[in-house]
Amino acid sequence: MNELIREPITARWIIVPMDKTVEVSDLITEQVPKTKGNCPFCYGGEVLTPPEISAYRKSGGPNTPNWSVRVVPNKFPALRIEGELERQGVGVFDLMNGVGAHEVIVDTPDHFRDMADLTYAECEEVIWAYRARSLDLKKDKRFKYILIFKNYGRSAGASLEHPHSQLIALPIVPKRVHEEMEGAAKYYDYKERCVFCDMVREELEEKERIIYNDDRFLAFCPYVSRFAYEIWILPKKHASDFANIDRDSVASFARALRDSLAKLKGLLKDPSYNFIIHTSPINGHEREDYHWHVEIMPKLSKVAGFEWGSGFYVNPVLPDVAAKNLSGVVIPEK
Amino acid sequence: MNELIREPITARWIIVPMDKTVEVSDLITEQVPKTKGNCPFCYGGEVLTPPEISAYRKSGGPNTPNWSVRVVPNKFPALRIEGELERQGVGVFDLMNGVGAHEVIVDTPDHFRDMADLTYAECEEVIWAYRARSLDLKKDKRFKYILIFKNYGRSAGASLEHPHSQLIALPIVPKRVHEEMEGAAKYYDYKERCVFCDMVREELEEKERIIYNDDRFLAFCPYVSRFAYEIWILPKKHASDFANIDRDSVASFARALRDSLAKLKGLLKDPSYNFIIHTSPINGHEREDYHWHVEIMPKLSKVAGFEWGSGFYVNPVLPDVAAKNLSGVVIPEK
């Protein structure tokens, strides 16, 4: 028998099987083998990208090799940084010019090592780059939201195979974020507690779905996972804005993120995935009713007509089973 | 330069390029060739499905061959028809047992002819089956919404290749439908007109994006297409509930749907797609503020982190260009 579970933040319903589960071996889909070629994100490819925005490098000038993390404008941006924001009505529609920023964070110079393979120190650097770019773009008054995400593998929409993340600064708060903020605010109004803090507390009490747990960060397969092997990572101490993350938390977050990805890679043989940093809109103050976090969504099946038509998600793997299987994966500490 | 367009019903923003467009040849993705095997939806496979719910057949009894359209319960249903609806709270979550109906409409006995290849008369029969099953399930007081959709091709999540559609009767009105109803109701409150009727009027005036047009139905690439080559089909006369469709409208709707799919197939070399019938929840009366319609979503690219994280969609093909290309496709009238 299937059970329907309602997620309290966005009011999504998830359908999960209570009596059967899909085996790991049935979820594994082959990753296209990587081939290096003439990669713009490898050492020597610096001339193939637009001039860099920033980079961590020990020696040498901008747009030369020997960097460890490099940030460049997206060559085919969804939005462009130039111009003033203009909005107008056309019939029943609203039009706006495409002002925004679209940046690529190259996670590592090594074409063949994904975030799952990085050392903790290397992963920390990527997170410092996320933070630095967020703080810089927050100063631009045209922007209302900063979205940081990663597409890994073809099924997740990655068009370049060299490990990279993306950042998009948006001139409006997007609909998906609005919904999440509203849902969290409603919960807070009613309970006077943050819904994400409550989720952290419940997961720590139940101990059934935990992937990573230290003083500062918790990673778990949420009770309302939309996707098989979905993982959420949250700071344990309430914080609404990722960009305000402090030094100790960066170290802890890097371990939680890298270990979660390494366990997914180990168990499911290098699956495609998206991860998204969910953070509060740009407005200068910490919010009591919202809690920044990361959602990792492995792409193990296709989103089909039922999901599109309803907003329901059918998850064929109980999150308790997913967490148990992931916990069994031995990964190197490094 | 890209332009952002806001869709007035669900407040989604679509990013479209105003100065460049992706060529048809760059969008074509190969369909896995069909192989018949031991198909439960071909003649002779009737014993491999659960006993049929209904079928159109000229001779012979239930669960024998010689049918033209056949409706069976889904062998692996997301929801089950048995039992009373029970709802309970668990921590911050709501739980509900999986009561509902999940049916498969086998469009044709011919394994190798998709809906795009059917004659108009054959397509009409499929639509009569949609209608008959909707009317029957609407009598069940446990159900609040009936979702009819099709997944075609692997990228669209189809697991069986024999042409089929699906119907799911749900014990709650799903979130995605709620949003659309609310958006349409807000527009109606403000303008005292149906937003879909306004869209039909604008498309008919502009004449730039029309794929099919007769006395009763209009098919067009909407001005706010989320996906490349997206097509919407609407009845021209206001109607909120698909299940109330009359005889003449079934004939017209069948032509609009079959011709739209045939043009997509001809232009894009058999792309994967989902289509969904958007109709009003079960409540017994026609609504002034909602308008049933079909949304056809070709699966030509992956939904990636940006779309997941924002609810924005990046559509690389201007709908005017899509409609022009589709209009040029010659398809047989039959």
Blueprint of the fold:
The structure is a homodimer of 334-residue chains.
Chain A: E1 2-6, E2 13-17, H1 24-27, E3 54-57, E4 67-73, E5 87-90, E6 93-97, E7 101-106, H2 120-138, E8 145-152, E9 164-170, H3 175-191, H4 195-206, E10 210-213, E11 217-220, E12 231-235, H5 247-268, E13 273-278, E14 293-298, H6 305-310, E15 313-314, H7 319-327
Parallel strand pairs in A: 2-15
Antiparallel strand pairs in A: 1-2, 3-4, 4-7, 5-6, 7-9, 8-9, 8-13, 10-11, 11-12, 12-14, 13-14
Describe the structure.
Two copies of one chain form a homodimer. Chain A is α+β, with helices and mostly antiparallel strands and 334 residues long. The first copy, chain A, has a single domain, classed as HIT-like (HIT family, subunit A), CATH 3.30.428.10. Chain A has helices spanning 24-27, 120-138, 175-191, 195-206, 247-268, 305-310, 319-327; strands at residues 2-6, 13-17, 54-57, 67-73, 87-90, 93-97, 101-106, 145-152, 164-170, 210-213, 217-220, 231-235, 273-278, 293-298, 313-314. Chain A has a ten-stranded antiparallel beta sheet, sandwiched between helices. The mean pLDDT of chain A is 92. At the A-B interface, β1, β6, β8, β9 and α3 of A face β1, β6, β8, β9 and α3 of B.
Report the oligomer: homodimer
Q: What strand order characterises the main sheet of chain A? A: 3-4-7-9-8-13-14-12-11-10
Which segments of chain A are poorly predicted (pLDDT under 50) over 5 or more consecutive residues? none
Name of the CATH architecture of chain A: 2-Layer Sandwich
Q: Write down the domain tally of chain A.
A: 1
Rounded to the nearest angstrom, the radius of gyration of chain A is: 20 Å
What's the name of the CATH homologous superfamily of chain A? HIT-like
As a percent range, the share of helical residues of chain A equals: 25-40%
Number of strands of chain A: 15
Measured distance between first and last alpha carbons of chain A: 43 Å
The number of distinct helices of chain A, counting runs of at least 4 residues, comes to 7
Biggest interface, CB < 8 A: A-B, 68 and 68 residues
User: What's the overall geometry of chain A?
Assistant: globular
Largest sheet geometry of chain A: 10 strands, antiparallel
What is the third-level CATH name, the topology of chain A? Answer: HIT family, subunit A
How confident overall, as mean pLDDT of chain A?
Answer: 92
Strand content of chain A: 15-25%
CATH class of chain A: Alpha Beta
Structural class of chain A, by secondary structure, is: alpha+beta
The string of secondary-structure elements of chain A, in order, is EEHEEEEEHEEHHEEEHEEHEH
